[in-house]
Amino acid sequence: MTPAELQALIRTVPDFPAPGVQFRDITTLIAHGDGLKASVAHLAAHARDAGAQAIAGMEARGFIFGAAVAIELGVGFVPVRKPGKLPVETIGIDYALEYGVDRLEMDPKAVAQGQRVVLVDDLIATGGTACAAAKLLRQAGAIVDHAAFVIDLPDLGGAKRLAEIGVSVSALMDFAGE
């Protein structure tokens, strides 16, 4: 399936989670077997071209696509988790949200020094989570200079924020506006 055909599988939910927001819902895409398979294949091609030695995904929807891409490439998957979810000593990073602060954590032994890790997630909006994940992976010793997303919301500037920290972005599709 082409990216345009995949984009047609994305459901838009108006006024969620707040009035005026057009929520891009991937559940209709992941429920479509051929659409999910094609999305993973496209993301895997980007990660392969970037020289991925591992794939990292952010909780929660990044786990769906990231683990599938890792399987497709035959490389490991590094989960970047919400706080308190890992049973081992972790490293973490706090990052700003629109109305507060959040945190990501990971097992620092999940990547090898100098290992090329590609970030994979369902959507890039403001880039806060993706930038934090890239910084955290780098703190653990990974090389992170590529990220692949199913959806980019370019008006929110996330791809630009990632570029500013040396991470190039590819996305299967984009939606103007929020």
Automatic annotation (TrEMBL):
Enzyme class, one word?
A: transferase
Q: Which reaction does it catalyse?
A: AMP + diphosphate = 5-phospho-alpha-D-ribose 1-diphosphate + adenine
Q: Secretion signal: which residues? A: none
Q: Where in the cell is it found?
A: Cytoplasm
Q: What is its main location?
A: cytoplasm
Which Pfam families is this protein grouped with?
Pribosyltran
Example GO biological process: adenine salvage
This enzyme's EC code(s):
2.4.2.7
Ranges for the Phosphoribosyltransferase domain?
Answer: 35-152
Q: Tell me the CDD domains matching this sequence.
A: PRTases_typeI
* A single MF term (Gene Ontology): adenine binding
Tell me which GO cellular component terms the UniProt record holds.
Answer: cytoplasm
Task: Name the keywords, alphabetized.
Answer: Cytoplasm, Glycosyltransferase, Purine salvage, Transferase
Q: In which pathway does it act?
A: Purine metabolism; AMP biosynthesis via salvage pathway; AMP from adenine: step 1/1
Q: Which SUPFAM superfamilies does the protein's record reference?
A: PRTase-like
Protein task: Catalyzes a salvage reaction resulting in the formation of AMP, that is energically less costly than de novo synthesis.
Q: How does it assemble?
A: Homodimer.
NCBIfam families membership: apt, PRK02304.1-3, PRK02304.1-5
Similarity comment: family membership: Belongs to the purine/pyrimidine phosphoribosyltransferase family.
Listed name of the protein: Adenine phosphoribosyltransferase
